[in-house]
Each structure stands twice: as C-alpha cells, then as structure tokens.
Amino acid sequence: MNNPILYFNELYQEELKHTSVKIPSACCFTTIGVDGFPNSRFVSCKEVVNDHFIITGSKTARKGIEVEQNSKVALAFWWTSTNVQVRVQGLINELDSDSSNKYFQERNRESQIVSIVSNQGEVLDDIANLEQAYKVVEEEYREQVLSTPTSFGAWEIIPFRIEFLIFIDSRFHNRILYEKEGDAWKHTLLKP
C-alpha cells in the first residue's frame, strides 16, 4: 500500500472489530521535555483528519508547554487484538478554537468539569478543594452546556515517518517504514 494513512485506518478498523480494550484509541504521546529529556504519556487519538492525527488536552499542562517549545513529537500505538504496533513521528500544530470547542463538547460531562476545575499537572494541596470545585460547577451548570476553558486545546500531528510492525508467529514480523518525501510517501521493508 502506498499511503500509510489508509493502511493505518485499515489496520485500526480491523483492531476495532476484535478488541475489548476500553479505549482502543489510546496511544503513547512523546514530547521533548523542557529539560531536554523525552517525556511520554498516554492520550486518546481523537481521529485522523486530512492525514493528521488529532489529540487534545490542557495547553497549560506539561505536554501543552512542551509542544509550544518544541514541535517534534511521536505517537506509538499497540493494538493487542491484532498484534500491531504503529509508530508515528511528526510535527505538532495547535488547531483553531473552533476545533478545540468541537472536541471539548464531544467529551463526557465529567471530563469537561475536570478540565474546568483542575489545572492539570499542578501540585495538589487538598483533594477536598478540588472535589468541592467540581460539585460547584456540576450544580451551577446542571442544565447548561459547558463552555470550553481557554486552557483546553486540540492539536494535529503532521506525520513525516510512520512505521508498522505486524507481529507474526514465526517471529519474522512484517516491518514497513514509510517516510514522507515532498508530497509522496516512500516505503521500505525493514528486518524484524
């Protein structure tokens, strides 16, 4: 296949047919930390749009600060039901506020309230204060649509390298590397 995004979508749809994983869109998102060390955490890939991988989160949390300072990032997917690993390297770009609003409104209400009351990654002095702030927002806005906090953002990861590793019983796994050259993708087979 000449297009790795189409291949990614095909493999992901196959995984969705078989998986019982609660969040099959989970992937490991790696940034370059402000101290120069790689920094990884799991996020949910919201979708793939225009060949770009979409993630969301707090712009004031560590990941938001790190991508503001260095746009080089990576994603790693591991699909347990189909034994497929996908690694993506690319550049990240913040999307506009309309996109942030769209993805915020798609979150469940509990996650929306947590995004409003919690400054993700800051030192927690007292969980009771955070729980109280949650209850206040929950009560005050019970019948209302919650507004997207300014700290919530959506980003697109524009890939320039995607590697697929499809595990097979013989241990001679299928390993395919796609690299962007201009507007085209070049692919090569790698030894497992």
Automatic annotation (TrEMBL):
Claim: S-adenosyl-L-methionine is one of the keywords in the record: no
Pyridoxamine 5'-phosphate oxidase N-terminal domain location: 24-135
Annotated GO MF terms: FMN binding; pyridoxamine phosphate oxidase activity
Bilayer-crossing regions: none
Example GO BP: pyridoxine biosynthetic process
Binding site for FMN: R41, F42, V43, S44, C45, K46, R62, K63, Q85, R175
Keywords annotated in UniProt: Flavoprotein, FMN, Oxidoreductase
Domain Pyridoxine 5'-phosphate oxidase dimerisation C-terminal residues, every copy: 152-192
Cofactor requirement: FMN
Highest rank taxon of the organism: Bacteria
Free-text cofactor note: Binds 1 FMN per subunit.
Family: Belongs to the pyridoxamine 5'-phosphate oxidase family.
Protein's name according to its UniProt entry: Pyridoxamine 5'-phosphate oxidase
Source organism (scientific name): Myroides marinus
